[in-house]
Amino acid sequence: MDRRKRKTREAIFSAFTELLSEKNFESITVGEIIDSADIGRATFYSHFETKDSLMEALCEELFCHIFDAMGKENEHKHIFECDAPDSVFLHLFLHLQKNDNNILKLLSGRNNDLFLRYFKKHLTELVSSQMHLFESEKKKKLPESFLINHISSTFVETIRWWVENGKKETAETVTEYFFSVL
Amino acid sequence: MDRRKRKTREAIFSAFTELLSEKNFESITVGEIIDSADIGRATFYSHFETKDSLMEALCEELFCHIFDAMGKENEHKHIFECDAPDSVFLHLFLHLQKNDNNILKLLSGRNNDLFLRYFKKHLTELVSSQMHLFESEKKKKLPESFLINHISSTFVETIRWWVENGKKETAETVTEYFFSVL
DNA sequence: ATAATTACCGAACAATATATTCAGTTTCGT
DNA sequence: ACGAAACTGAATATATTGTTCGGTAATTAT
């Protein structure tokens, strides 16, 4: 890809991420994005059709990065190295603790529901594949879709709580909390 | 309050609620609301400053109604009649099953995050006052704010799951599900 | 190196939505 | 029946979106 195109794309993502951490998606205008990214109006629209497709692209960028990397990591690790039930989730918390790709800015900001929906969607797929970790006598009676939704939601809410309370706990502690309530 | 004012307010709430069940908050225009409510433009703005404050007022209306009524109901019932740990939450599910005030329309529609935030806010207060129902050895180690957030979130997500899957289960069954995962 | 391509600029523009104003009409409470 | 309060609807200013276009600069290919 042309270096200019790459740089512009980066500038847009960067400006947008920064704005998302300050205010909610709906109240961000394209005008603000191009001012913040310091690019021309037409340039923005040559990269993204709408503000929504920018959000979509940003989510793809972030989640494909984290989840795909994790997926591959686990194809190796899960089979050969780690069989502890919390590995996948602990890994996610560790990624978040390092604040890869400024993902926490998006989670901590107010109202970034579109982002959270994407996050939960990807997470649900992960949880579905990890359901064997959560099986117990007590839970056998519950509908699977209910359980999957519950676990994904709990994960997202745990992160939200963690971030909104200043990330005082270590990733390991939060992982413990997460499993304690499941 | 003047009958006209009351009727207009009702018409606005009604039109808005209906619209919220069809599309998301952001994509509803004031123009649509006044057309649907069949009132003049200036009339709308004499009642509400913005679309946001209409949403706020609607939430206050609904939640004060449900939660306050429940609060009082429980001041009586809780002490004299029901001491089953699930009473308060079962009551809420029953209210929702009856679809009081079309509250479910707001929960089932996409993206009605502002509404869900209000719902969770009020719910958190309720949960805080009911924390004694959830105490156990296992949970004693966890921070209280984490637990309160977890329980409120689980309740909201349970409702969301229930509604989005067609409300096939009875209120009693969903209440069981809710307590099973806590 | 130079030519062709690709990307960016930024101002202008149409379309849409918001929020206010105001003069004129209807409805309410007493 | 009367004054106050509420509604009407058209006009207006402002803001945002998404498009267009002629001109400029950076990149790539030959």
Helix/strand layout:
Two copies of one chain form a homodimer.
Chain A: H1 3-22, H2 30-37, H3 41-47, H4 51-80, H5 87-98, H6 103-108, H7 113-129, H8 144-164, H9 171-180
Helix pairs in contact in A: 1-2, 4-5, 4-7, 5-9, 7-8
The structure holds a DNA duplex (30 and 30 nucleotides).
Determine the CATH topology of the largest domain in chain A. Tetracycline Repressor, domain 2
Largest sheet of chain A: none
Shape of chain A: elongated
Which CATH first-tier class of the largest domain in chain A would you pick? Mainly Alpha
**What is the count of β-strands of chain A?**
0
Please report the distance between the alpha carbons of the first and last residues of chain A.
45 Å
| Helix vs. strand class of chain A | mainly alpha
Q: What's the SSE pattern of chain A?
A: HHHHHHHHH
Low-confidence stretches of chain A: 76-83
The CATH architecture classification of the largest domain in chain A is Orthogonal Bundle
Which pair has the most extensive contact? Answer: A-B, 25 and 26 residues
**The CATH homology group name of the largest domain in chain A:** Tetracycline Repressor, domain 2
Compute the number of helices of chain A.
9
What percentage of the residues of chain A does DSSP assign to strands (E)? under 5%
So what's the oligomer here? homodimer
Helix residue percentage of chain A = over 70%
Radius of gyration of chain A over all CA atoms, rounded? 18 Å
Could you report the average pLDDT of chain A, rounded to the nearest whole number?
Answer: 85
Q: How many discrete structural domains of chain A? A: 2
